[in-house]
Design a protein that fits this description.
Helix content: 40-55%
Mean pLDDT: 76
Structural class: alpha/beta
Number of strands: 18
Largest sheet: 6 strands, mixed
Shape: globular
Distance between the termini: 65 Å
Number of helices: 36
Length: 926
């Protein structure tokens, strides 16, 4: 006994057996992620085909166990390899689509287990086990299957470790996991190695399925289940998706913890709550390790979605779009005249799912946060309706349910403030299971310690019946009346979403989604944008939950199965990530086709995960972009810009963030940046005169970019001070520094691929003059004036930089030189710090010198003839000069003599850039 918790020996052994299965699955998940950067949600089903086939061979064909086992393990490895080959079409596609495709792949593999040459004739017989030994611990008898697991699992783990550490193939996998491009240059066949990794993962999954099948009775023919997969995912996350040892041990620990909880609590709901809390704690504790991995696949990994921002450059396309919307609206209004009650009910369901799809579009398509448990937020709205529909007016019930769902969405999305959206998918999947098993199935739960009772579940989890209320005196009981009510909610949702899309909200979310670092450097409030995405999406999901409950009338806990969340994700994928109209088309496809043509085999095929996977693999785009491709636009040419100055950035308009009215001076004292034991920047002192242009010269790896990252707030220094006009910036976020005039550009031109040039510049203006969501939604006069003012400013910048021909072009459609001009134009109205901002002749000739900060190539010979001689040279890989050198040059306190000047004779090389900007801005270029 430990307090009131008992831990019998048999419980520990049972937890060990369960944890070995979790650990084996976690090994395969980590292996696939390390080599392919994919969260494989089909991993649990890869080995089920082999497990079912083993029962078929032994029980039906009476083949000896060991030869049949070898054959089935080969089948498991083959299934893994074939899965990778099928998904290889998505090799260069966003990781999100690959992950969603694995969800459809799981259903394809499940269909394979139903084939007559795979599925056994009798599912109720005992699953074959090669040994018959059993043992007893504390009076608890363990069956031969448990004995087999305790023997085989450690052997498999040891063999896997030897293969991965000692073999040449394991070395190739490790090299590819660390740096794929370098591995290719070293002669490693990346795609072959990836296929081998998936084969090994399939083998591990097959072993797990075979070991787990004796204890699952006739359920062995089904997938290993979302609960088991979620435990394995939690173990993999504890291992930071990179450490096999930590992931395997974490799997064992989770198995023991679950077994102890089941023994002491004996309530499935409490166990699920505890495991969900463990998952959240694992994410929070391992967030630093999760962020250390390669982020190359996530920097701009959402370009497959259709264009979110409405492009107004093509008048014919815009007229076609508006005509289609008007026609669809008229059809929806007159459709009830030819529908009976049952058909009106089915169409109402389509409208409800369209609202849900729009809400997920905001979170996933705009903000880049994938949710696999979005239907849990809809369930919250349904619970609020079931509890309050008889006591609260419907006009108040809709926003109340929306606010409650928004609050829950924000809480669930808190881990996303520090990690990217692919990991959030695991958290939301856990939320979906928690909602169905624990919350909805428990009408009233007792809160520990306080003794309170919270009635947060359905009044009757088996069958909850509600009565439709009246709205402004109109009875919503008739089905056709309910049809028009849900249609009105959908129309209002689409109108609001369109306002958000076209007037600022979507711009900021897309900027954070595509380039979080660049958006923060521009001044976008990243945390605010993410929380806003969760709040808006959760609000619409809660409103949809009210509509779902009113349309359905009778529902139960199983109605909100996690598979419904996958259905909504499929709608967003089919319609196009980020497309409002596409969300409606996705709902029409996946819900409307079964409603119109029934649930026949063909309909089930094209609307299931199988059809979704085929859609992703073989169609080049989404439902919207496939029909509305603009092929008429020819290549735009950059015209010679008019040489005219941009309006003075130091004079703010009404409501703008006030920038310094006088040129700012920058001082850096004893700045140190360390990565582990490596000193990247070691004690740098720097003082820059107001109005100067300063260049930093040095070889690759000397710490130039790291210094700029520390000055702009992207890295926190280990020690030192950064002062801007006497203000200490060390504790300021990048967006806070941007508000003070510290704006950063990047060597690789980190812009926003899906935004147009106009909207990219509008993002910078939004950071200067942020507007509230409510004022933007209601289109208040102040919001309209601010939007017009921003667009007027953007017009000036486009004209000054010669970018008018590219106004409606997306960033990913521009050349590198043009993207660089856009990057400079976005920062032209602020003090600017750039990292090698111009690396091409076209960039220097396209931008007039009087219009903004002077720019120089970091290798430009003109930079070496700088008249000012102001700057810092990095002589070595540690960055900066040693303290002893600075003391010998300066005042004994480690500061150089004079205002940041190093005598030419002591710089050891050509002088850095030092020019005066006519606008008085401070520019720091490396």
């Amino acid at each position: 006994m430990i307090g009131t918790i008992s831990v019998p020996a048999a419980t520990l052994v049972q937890g060990l057996i369960l944890g070995l299965n979790y650990g084996l699955l976690a090994l395969g998940l980590v292996l696939v992620y390390r080599t392919s950067r994919v969260l494989n949600f089909a991993h649990g089903e890869l080995g089920v085909v082999a497990a079912v086939l083993l029962a078929k061979l032994v029980n039906d064909y009476h083949i000896s166990y060991w030869p049949a086992l070898v054959l089935c393990l080969a089948v498991g490895a083959g299934v893994g390899g074939l899965s990778e080959l099928a998904l290889r079409r998505l090799f260069d596609r966003p990781r999100l689509l690959v992950m969603v495709a694995t969800i459809g792949l799981e259903q394809i593999l499940f269909v394979a287990t139903l084939l007559p040459f795979v599925r056994p004739k009798h599912l109720f017989g005992s699953y074959p086990v090669p040994i018959h030994a059993h043992f007893t611990v504390g009076g608890e008898r363990f069956l031969p299957g448990d004995t087999f697991t305790l023997i085989v699992a450690p052997i498999v783990v040891a063999a896997f470790a030897i293969f991965f550490i000692r073999s040449a193939y394991g070395l190739a996998m490790r090299a590819m996991a660390e740096n794929g491009e370098s591995a290719r240059l070293a002669g490693i066949w990346i795609k072959r190695t990836s296929t081998l990794a998936w084969m090994l993962a399939g083998l591990l999954s097959a072993v797990t399925a075979i070991l787990a099948s004796p204890g699952r009775a006739n359920a062995f023919s089904q997938a290993l289940g979302p609960e088991l997969l979620l435990r394995a995912l939690a173990a993999a996350l504890i291992g930071a998706m990179t450490s096999f040892v930590v992931a395997f041990l974490a799997g064992i620990g989770l198995g023991v913890l679950e077994s102890v909880l089941v023994w002491n609590v004996r309530q499935a709901s409490t166990v699920e709550v505890a495991m969900f809390v463990v998952l959240l704690i694992a994410l929070l504790l391992r967030v630093r390790a999760l962020r250390k991995g390669s982020r190359a696949e996530e920097r701009s990994a959402w370009s497959f979605g259709s264009s979110v921002i409405r492009v107004t450059g093509n008048a014919a396309r815009e007229r076609l779009r508006r005509g289609a919307l008007v026609g669809a609206g008229i059809l929806a209004l007159v459709l009830p005249a030819v529908l009976d009650n049952s058909r009106a009910f089915l169409v109402s369901r389509i409208f409800v799912f369209a609202v849900i799809a729009v809400s997920l579009t905001i979170l996933t398509g705009w903000a880049g946060q994938l949710s696999l448990g979005h239907f849990a937020l809809v369930a919250i709205g349904a619970v609020v309706t079931a509890r309050l529909v008889d006591h609260v007016n419907l006009v108040l019930l809709l926003p109340l349910a929306g606010l409650i769902s928004a609050a829950v969405a924000i809480v669930v999305g808190l881990p996303a403030l520090r990690i990217r959206g692919l990991y959030l998918a695991v958290t939301t999947l856990g939320l979906a299971l928690l909602m169905q098993v624990a919350v909805l199935a428990t009408p009233c739960a007792r809160i520990p310690l306080f003794g309170w009772h919270a009635c947060t579940g359905l009044p009757d989890p088996a069958s909850t019946l509600i009565r439709r209320p009246r709205l402004l005196g109109v009875d919503l009981g008739p089905q056709h009346t309910m049809y028009y009510f849900v249609l009105g909610v959908l129309a209002l949702t689409l109108l609001v979403a369109r306002v958000w899309r076209d007037h600022g909200v979507a711009r900021d979310l897309l900027a954070v989604r595509d380039n979080e670092v660049g958006a923060a450097a521009t001044g976008v409030r990243v945390v605010r944008a993410k929380l806003m995405a969760f709040a808006l999406s959760g609000f619409l999901a809660g409103v949809a939950g009210v509509c779902f409950a009113l349309v359905t009338e009778r529902f139960k806990a199983s109605t909100f199965d996690p598979s419904q969340s996958i259905l909504v994700v499929a709608m967003v994928i089919i319609g196009g990530l980020g497309s409002i109209e596409g969300a409606v088309l996705g709902a029409l496809y996946l819900v409307g086709i079964p409603a119109a043509f029934g649930s026949g085999p063909t309909v089930q095929f094209i609307t299931s995960g199988v059809g979704l996977t085929i859609f992703i693999l073989f169609l080049p785009g989404d439902a919207v972009s496939a029909g509305l491709q603009d092929r008429s636009a020819g290549p735009a040419r950059m015209t010679a810009p008019a040489v005219q100055p941009v309006r003075d950035a130091t004079r703010p308009r009404g409501g703008e963030t006030e920038l310094p009215r006088t040129p700012a001076g920058l001082e850096v004292y004893d700045l140190v940046v360390a990565f582990g034991g490596l000193l990247a920047v070691n004690g740098v002192d720097l003082s820059i005169q107001p109005g100067s242009t300063v260049g930093i010269l040095g070889p690759n790896g000397s710490g130039k970019t790291t210094l700029l990252d520390a000055v702009s707030g992207l890295l926190r220094p280990a020690s030192g001070l950064v002062h801007l006009d006497g203000v200490d910036l060390v504790d300021y976020l990048p967006e806070d520094r941007a508000a003070l005039g510290v704006v950063r550009s990047f060597q690789d031109c980190r812009l926003y691929p899906e935004l147009t040039v106009e909207d990219t510049l509008m993002v910078a203006e939004d950071a200067r003059r942020p507007l509230g969501v409510l004022s933007s939604t209601l289109r208040l006069p102040a919001a309209r004036r601010a939007e017009n003012d921003k667009r007027q400013t953007v017009d000036e910048v486009l004209d000054a930089f010669g970018l008018e021909p590219f106004r409606h072009r997306r960033i990913d459609q521009l050349s590198t030189g043009t993207r660089r001009v856009v990057d400079l134009a976005a920062a032209a109205r602020r003090a600017h710090r750039g990292d090698r901002p111009t690396r091409g002749r076209g960039v220097r000739t396209a931008h007039p010198r009087p219009a903004g900060p002077h720019r120089h190539d970091h290798r430009d010979r003109r930079a070496r003839r700088s008249p000012d001689g102001v700057g810092v040279r990095f002589p070595g890989c540690h960055g900066g000069r040693t303290r002893r050198q600075r003391r010998s040059d300066g005042d004994g306190a480690g500061r150089p003599r004079g205002p940041g000047r190093i005598p030419r004779g002591e710089r050891g090389g050509p002088g850095p850039v030092g020019t005066r900007s006519p606008t008085g801005r401070l520019t720091l270029l490396s």
